[in-house]
Amino acid sequence: MDEPTANLDYGNQFRVMSHIKQLVKKGYLVILSTHNPEHALLYADKVLVLKEGKAAMYGTPESVLSPVIIQRIYGVPVELQTMRASWGDVPVFVPRFEN
Fold this sequence. Notes:
Structural class: alpha+beta
Order of helices and strands: HHEEHHEE
Helix content: 25-40%
Largest sheet: 2 strands, antiparallel
Number of helices: 4
C-alpha cells in the first residue's frame, strides 16, 4: 500500500490503519509506505527506513525508529515520548523546538 492515509483527516487515518491491522490479524501480509513515523510505531512489525531511495535501516520499530534516525531522515529534531493510554503505553515523536 502506497501511503494509504495520505490526505486523510485524523479520524480516517485511524480507521484505515485499524482496518489494515485487522487484515494482518487475518493472515494477510501488508507492505505499507508512510511518512508518518507514528504509524510505524503503532502498527508495524518490521520497518524499512529509506533515505534518498536506499535502505538505511531495517528491524523492529523499537530498534529502528529513534530520534536520531527521525532527525536524519526528516531533518527535524524530535524526542521520543511515551503517552499513557487506557490500553497501554503509546510511543510518539514530539518535535523539539529550539529556543
